[in-house]
Amino acid sequence: MRYRGLLEGKHAFITGASSGIGAAAARVFCREGAAVTLAARREERLSALVDELRATGCEAQYVVVDVVRKEQVEEGVARAVERFGRLDVAFNNAGVAAAGTPMHMMGDEVYDTVMDVNVRGMWNCLRHEISAMLDEGGSIVNTSSTAGLVATPVAAPYIAAKHAVIGLTKAVATEYAARGIRVNAIVPGATHSEMTDAWMAAFPGVEEELVRAALLPRIAEPEEIAEAAAWLSSDRASFVVGAAMPVDGGWTVR
Length: 254
Fold this sequence. Notes:
By secondary structure, the chain is α/β, with parallel strands linked by helices. The chain has one domain (about 10-250): Rossmann fold (3-Layer(aba) Sandwich), CATH 3.40.50.720. About 45% of the residues lie in helices and about 15% in strands. It is built from 8 helices and 7 strands, in the order E-H-E-H-E-H-E-H-E-H-E-H-H-H-E. The chain has helices at about 20-30, 45-55, 70-85, 110-135, 155-175, 195-200, 205-215, 220-235; strands spanning about 10-15, 35-40, 60-65, 90, 140-145, 180-190, 245. It has a 7-stranded parallel sheet with strand order 3-2-1-4-5-6-7, sandwiched between helices. Helix 1 (about 20-30) packs across helix 8 and helix 4 runs parallel beside helix 5. The N and C termini lie far apart (about 45 Å).
């Protein structure tokens, strides 16, 4: 019996796709049978990743998108629908972090950037993805964080933004489940990526603290988060909606 991929025949739109969890998701989604449109700001990286995926037989294209720019998001989703005929799956993974500064010492520009990318960017993506899915339904997965469930010091804007992602996920799920659109969130723990690795390097001792606090005492690989996103995106998660699913090695259990 031929193996059927989780996402065989699906058409997916992935943001934050030029590195980290987003790039890992591009590879996992393709392996599971999806055709993909990859969106991010760094064109050179997107182009190289699309070439890699096409070499494996995957149907792939990229669009240069800053999720804060709603017109770019609209154009990116339209390109996905134009190329593949419809949009079945969206993985909203673009995000930025800010940590290490007490709240009373943070400048307004830090708050503005973190909220714009993580919340307004999610808002922009959801609006256009939902519009593309209204006729045939689909599945949307949003990337939150353990910071969306619990708080830690000196990261107030990021914590606020990732809590907002979970709230937005629940709100949209409530509104569109009856239209056949499942919306869920994944809640990654510490995961190797450009952003996280740079943060851990900047603050010695943080990695050890994160590892010590988890039930599985290590930092996740981006592919492990992408696997969870692929399952949530698939029809095998057909009765899961409005969930915020931890993929954190047990960090939030303690």
